[in-house]
Design brief:
Rossmann fold, alpha/beta
Length: about 220
């Protein structure tokens, strides 16, 4: 199965922090020969809007209250951060990002990780939405492999903190509950299935989803 066989499918991946969702998403995209977006979305947003990439990264997958605190912590006003005289709120950033996600999906098949992409693409067809979770011990090991300066308890605290942020962001902007199986087409455990197993199941599900689409 390659990009010539999959039409204009969009595969979205939500994930617990440290579950390997980003690695899984990139492997799925590589195997299918289609575009992959994660942090790349931030750079696209910055290019199209003239907003500081660093600020977009800091505000990524946070709720409006976080953005207000971000400005407060840095002692800056929105006018001094954004280009021109435009005042940007996190709601504006969310709408900008959702518009960009829909544009990307319209241009060709893709895998998009995080950013409540499946909600932004809820009218896109074909769409396959996936959530990746894992046992906390495996998540701690994965986090520490990337940040070896952390102790196990610190890595677990970081995982819980980032999950709370992601859940708050997702639930603020959607009518669904983050991480609940009914919010997605598939919910997979990378602890039980492994990274490779998750990749294979997602690709298999993408084939099924394509068969469900009416012929043009």
């Amino acid at each position: 199965m390659d990009s010539n066989d999959i039409g204009n499918i969009a595969i979205t991946i939500g994930r617990q922090f440290g579950s390997g969702g980003r690695d899984i998403g990139r492997l799925v995209a590589d195997r299918l020969g289609i575009s992959y977006y994660d942090k790349e979305l931030i750079m696209k947003e910055a290019q199209e809007s003239g907003i500081s990439p660093k600020l977009l990264e800091n505000a990524d997958e946070r709720t409006p209250s976080f953005l207000e605190n971000l400005f407060s912590w840095n002692g800056i006003s929105t006018g001094s951060v954004f280009s021109g005289n435009t005042t940007m709120t996190l709601d504006n950033l969310y709408m900008l990002q959702s518009k960009l996600i829909r544009k990307i999906a319209a241009e060709g098949p893709c895998v998009i990780v995080g950013r409540s992409a499946e909600y932004a693409l809820r009218k896109h067809r074909p769409l396959l939405s996936v959530f990746i979770h894992a046992d906390i011990d495996d998540r701690v090991k994965r986090i520490m492999s990337r940040q070896p300066e952390l102790r196990p308890d610190q890595a677990e605290q970081l995982a819980n903190k980032r999950d709370r942020m992601r859940a708050g962001y997702y639930e603020y902007y959607t009518d669904k509950e983050w991480g609940k199986s009914e919010s997605y087409d598939m919910s997979l455990s990378s602890s039980r299935l492994g990274i490779e197993g998750c990749v294979e199941l997602i690709i298999a599900a993408a084939k099924v989803r394509l068969k469900e689409q009416p012929s043009q």
